[in-house]
Amino acid sequence: MREGMSESGRALTIPFVDLHAQYLSIREEVDAAIRAVILESGFVRSRFVTAFEQEFADAIGIGHCVSCANGTDAIYIALKGLKLQPGDEVITTAHSWISTSETITQAGGTVVFCDTDPETFTIDPSQIASKITSRTVGIIPVHLCGQAADMDPILAIASKHKLWVIEDCAQAVMAQYKGKRVGTMGTAATFSFYPGKNLGAMGDAGCLVTNDSALAAWCELYARHGGKGEHQIEGINSRLDGLQAAILSAKLPHLGGWTTARQRVAARYDELLVGSRAIRTPRIAPDRTHVFHLYMIRASNRDALQQHLARKGISTMINYSRALPFYPAYSRFRHTPDDFPVAFRNQQEILSLPIYPEMRDAMIEHVARATLEFVTQ
Ligand SMILES: *Cc1c(COP(=O)(O)O)cnc(C)c1O
C-alpha cells in the first residue's frame, strides 16, 4: 500500500517499505541503466554483470564477487563450493529466513540449529561448542536485521575445530563488526538483492563473495553450467541478469546515504519509544554498526499491538512467525521450545516496524505515537 494522507490530514497510511518512493528518487539513473542494457541486448553474461561484480567487491573490500540469481542460490553455491558431503553437519541460527537452513539440506548436509543471543537476534556463540560433533564441517551465522553476529568467538570456534564459516549477509550489507565489514570475515559470504533488501534489484538477484580465488572460480563455474563451451563439471544455471546488474550498479552509489537514512529512522524510533517498559527496542552491541534492514521490537502483547497499528494504517511484519526449528519443514527434528528458549520467546514477541530511507519524520512520529498509545492504554 502506498503512503498517502486523507484530506483531513489525519489518516496517514504507512507502508512497511516504499520501493516506489525510492525509484522516484533515482528514476533517471535507473531508467538510463535499463535503456543501456536493452540497447546492447546485454541481458545475460554481459559487461553489466562483470561491472557490478567488480563494483560490489570493491565496495565490500573483498577479492571476488560471484553474482547469481538470488541470495538463496548464493548460499547453496557456496555450500557446494565448500564440498559439503552427505552427513556433514552445519550449525546455524534458530532465527532466520529459511534460505539459511534449506540450502544446507539441499546441498546434502544436515542442519543443526543453535539458539540466539537474548539481545541481538543473532546466533549465541556460547552455545555453538556444545553443538559440535565429529561430523560438523561449518557454521552459518546470519547478520539478522542488519546487525553483525558476534564474529570473534564464532571465528575462534571455527578455527579451533577447522570449520568453515559462511556469513549470511542478506540483511546486513555494509554493516560492520569491530571496524570490519560483514562479508569479509568468513570463508565466504552471501548477499541477497531481493527488492526489499537494503540494496535491492528490481527482481531476484544475489551474490557470494570470498577472498579465496579457487573457491570463487569453482563457484563461478558451478553457477554457469560448469563452464561455457567446455563443461568441466555439471553445474546449475544461476545467473544475475544484465538488467538487474545495471540497476544494482545505478543504486550502489546511493547505498551509503540510504544506510545513514535508515540509521536516522532507527535513532528517532529509539528516542520516541524510550522509557516504554512494555516494548524493547533493538539493542546495538558494542563495536557493531547496525544497518537496520529491520527495526525489530519486542512486545509481550505483540499480536494485539500489530492489530492496533494496522487499524492506524501502519503496516508491520513478523520476521518470522516461528523460529526455524518450529516450522513444519523441520518437524523431523522434533524440537521443543526448551531446545531454543530465546528464539521461541522471540517468535511470540517480535514485531518489525516500518523502516526505509524515505520515511519522513511525521511518519516515524505517527508510528511511535500509535505504538505508545497502545502500550499505555
Ligand atoms: C532475503 C534472505 C535470504 C535469501 O535471499 P533471496 O534473494 O530472497 O533468495 C537469505 N537469508 C536471509 C537472512 C534473508 O533475509
Description:
There is one protein chain. The N terminus is likely disordered. With 377 residues, the chain is α/β, with parallel strands linked by helices. Helix content is 37%, strand content 15%. It is built from 12 helices and 15 strands. Strands 3-11-10-7-6-4-5 form a 7-stranded mixed beta sheet, sandwiched between helices. Strands 9-8-13 form a 3-stranded antiparallel beta sheet, with no helix packed on it. It has a 3-stranded antiparallel beta sheet with strand order 12-14-15. It folds into 2 domains: 228 residues, Aspartate Aminotransferase, domain 2, CATH 3.40.640; 122 residues, Aspartate Aminotransferase, domain 1 (Alpha-Beta Complex). The structure holds pyridoxal-5'-phosphate (PLP). Pyridoxal-5'-phosphate binds next to helix 4 and helix 5.
What is the succession of H and E elements? EEHHHEHEHEEHEEEEEHHHEEEHHEH
CATH homologous superfamily annotation of the largest domain: Type I PLP-dependent aspartate aminotransferase-like (Major domain)
Number of domains: 2
Q: Rounded to an integer, what's the Rg over CA atoms?
A: 21 Å
